[in-house]
Amino acid sequence: MPRLPPGSRGFLLVLGGIFRRSAGPVVRVHGEGNTTIGNNNNTHKMRNKQVTLRQSEESDLEFFFQFQLDEQANYLAAFTAQDPTDKEAYFKKYTKHLNDPKINNQTILVDETIAGSIARFEIAGDAEITYWLDRKFWGQGIGTTALKRFLATEETRPIFGRVAFDNRGSQKVLENCGFVKVGTDKGFANARQAEIEEFIYKLI
């Protein structure tokens, strides 16, 4: 099964996750919280909002850094940095990711406002996805919309996603985008200071 790029898990997929077993960005789904994706309320909330993606830039890292300081998002992402407040380490790692041609880094925009990030990376020949969404955008279907748009242009298949066992909101994001649960794994989650189970999803 795939592993993250060096030193992360939690960009994102809350999907949020680029911090795990010294791999790299992973779908640490940090995004929709405990919401029900695709219900009437989400449809209403999304009606007047435009979700777009663009290539990530170094100037975006300041926003991404602030997003990942959120305690609730970190808890849901679970497999996060050992010290999320270490700004120097964060910028060093993610600047390297932005310059890595093997990682497809995209910034999520909502009505031109930076709302999060999403990326595809490779570990041992396997592709994984990761994303992180600012908590104020949770529960509006934005994570699902962003992931669908990302997958429309990112054609690598199969592609994997990993999410903490109790992050039902993020699991629904993956499922709504066609991912199927194919297994489980266990690992030490820095955000919880304990070993927890994670679910492995696959899109073919």
Summarize the structure.
The protein starts with 14 loop residues before the first strand and ends with a strand.
List its salient traits.
single chain; about 200 residues; alpha+beta; Aminopeptidase; seven-stranded mixed β-sheet; two-stranded antiparallel sheet; 6 helices; globular; disordered N terminus
Rg calculated over all Cα atoms:
15 Å
**Percent of residues in beta strands:** 25-35%
N-to-C terminal Cα separation, in Å?
A: 14 Å
CATH uppermost class: Alpha Beta
Number of domain modules: 1
Q: H/E series, N to C?
A: EEHEHHHEEEHEHEE
Number of helices: 6
- CATH hierarchy: architecture: 3-Layer(aba) Sandwich
Count of DSSP strands: 9
Quote the average pLDDT: 83
The CATH topology label is: Aminopeptidase
Strand count, sense and closure of the main sheet? 7 strands, mixed
Helical content (DSSP H or I, runs of 4+): 25-40%
Identify low-pLDDT runs.
1-44
The geometry reads as globular
Task: Write structural notes for this entry.
The protein is of the alpha+beta class and 204 residues long. It has a single domain (15-203), classed as 3-Layer(aba) Sandwich (Aminopeptidase). Helix content is 26%, strand content 31%. The protein contains six helices and nine strands; from the N terminus they run E-E-H-E-H-H-H-E-E-E-H-E-H-E-E. A hairpin with a 4-residue loop joins strand 8 and strand 9. It is globular, with a radius of gyration of 15 Å. The two termini are 14 Å apart. Residues 1-44 have low confidence and may be disordered.
